[in-house]
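FORM 7B - TANDEM STRUCTURE REPORT

SECTION 1: FIRST PROTEIN
SEQUENCE AND TOKENS:
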Amino acid sequence: MNAITQLDIDSQVYSLYDEYCHGGIDRREFLQRSAALGAAGLTMALSLLPRYAKAQTISFTDNRIKANYVTYDSPGGSSGQMRGYLVQPTGSGPFPAVLVIHENRGLNPYIEDVARRAAVDGFLALAPDGLFPVGGYPGNDDDGRTLQSGLDQGKLRTDMLNSAKYLKGHALSSGKLGATGFCWGGGTTNWLAATLGDALQAGAPFYGAAAATDSVPNIKAPLLIHYAEDDPRINAMKDGYEAALKAAGVRYEMHVYPGTRHGFHNNSTPRYNPEAAKLAWERTVAWFRKNLA
């Protein structure tokens, strides 16, 4: 029998991490099963856990932006109220608006930083916290994931829909609305495109679940869809989604980034791929500038 190689360990730990990230196993089981692969497996597993000090690329005190937390009504949502992180470029506006939708664990520091990045690029950005009705992002991803999975998923999506409507109608908004999101937020971006119809002017989902096929004809916004190369669960939906988009006459671009895994844009974990993340974000900014002008 051949000895297990580091490449084998990496592959197995990455698969376990993906299962952990999406709620299939808890943190303890992730670490235990990784440790069963040997010391190298446990070391790799520990390295994959988020380090949010690395996620900040734009300081919350950056003089190019103004950021604050806002609350707003969310009828039909989890509690009737929502809270989000609103970031505007300096100046009087109005600005094209971009909704930034978090992963499956609430509004963590990485997503707040993405909202600041969007504002630096000239957009009024809102990053809603779907966990606000249950106390907000709890300060760590494990508890955040548990809280988010315990919410009524239909009401959670309604909170994102109401967040989009709030942002579009904000006094600083030009009325042109884009949406982007990551993992769960990517899937929600696709869902919003189908739900909002022509009220959304552009979407840029990152490695998110496809919109339901029967809802695709409702999509009016041009979509820029980002995929990791190694992401079996999400990529299994890709061909069917593309066929539905073509059949509905939706304008779209799909990009698969070589050498990447699910979560490659998140710079707080080793899944981060700097080159792919930079290119994907540059494409996203250009997409929004083109379609939200």
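SECTION 2: SECOND PROTEIN
SEQUENCE AND TOKENS:
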Amino acid sequence: MEGVFTFLGAINHSHGFVFAGHLLLTAGLALLLAKMTMKNLRLVPVGTQNVMEAYLQGVIAMGRDVIGETNARKYLPLVATIGLIVFIANVLGIIPGFESPTGNINMTLPLAIIVFVYYNFEGIRKNGVVHYFAHFMGPVKMLAPLMFPIEIVSHISRIISLSFRLFGNIKGDDLFLWVLLMLAPWIVPLPAFLLLTFSALLQTFIFMILTYVYLAGAVMLEEESL
């Protein structure tokens, strides 16, 4: 955000530089966390390994009711990676002197496009091109010319929904924190930090669960028709 102090902004005032720097920082922190987890694997997990294993089990449990145990594990790498990146990016903006990359549409839009392309690819790969797109026409053949374009628009709108929901909420949180720190920089904002941390976690959960929901709709066509 222009006018807000960031450590990277003190080096270069270009917003593109600040955004790219915080995006690289987010990726670096995620890689560092993965390296710390894998550095000394134990049968009985401790420390970072314990936290990450609990996180992965939580992601599987999240997807189990949506897409089934097998598929939840199959798509775990995608959903867990997205969740980790989004959460770190969300929390980064809560720390004074840093900015949330997810508060920029240039990050949330590519993430939404990745999910969109991947779930459609998986749907086509599992069901075949004809069967997958036939599902867009609905159960009544007479309404197919009407339903098909509606379904196409509905699926494309998911890109907007995913990207703008995350971007809008995190941008709003950043602006709220900025105003609060300007009005009362000491002690008073502390409860707000807890609220913003919860919001960061909630937005991460929503992005992850919607990814599972879209994957379920693409690969489980037979179950939907029952």
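SECTION 3: OBSERVATIONS ON SECOND PROTEIN
The mean pLDDT is 89.
DSSP finds ten helices and no strands in the chain.

SECTION 4: SIGNATURE
Preparer initials: ____
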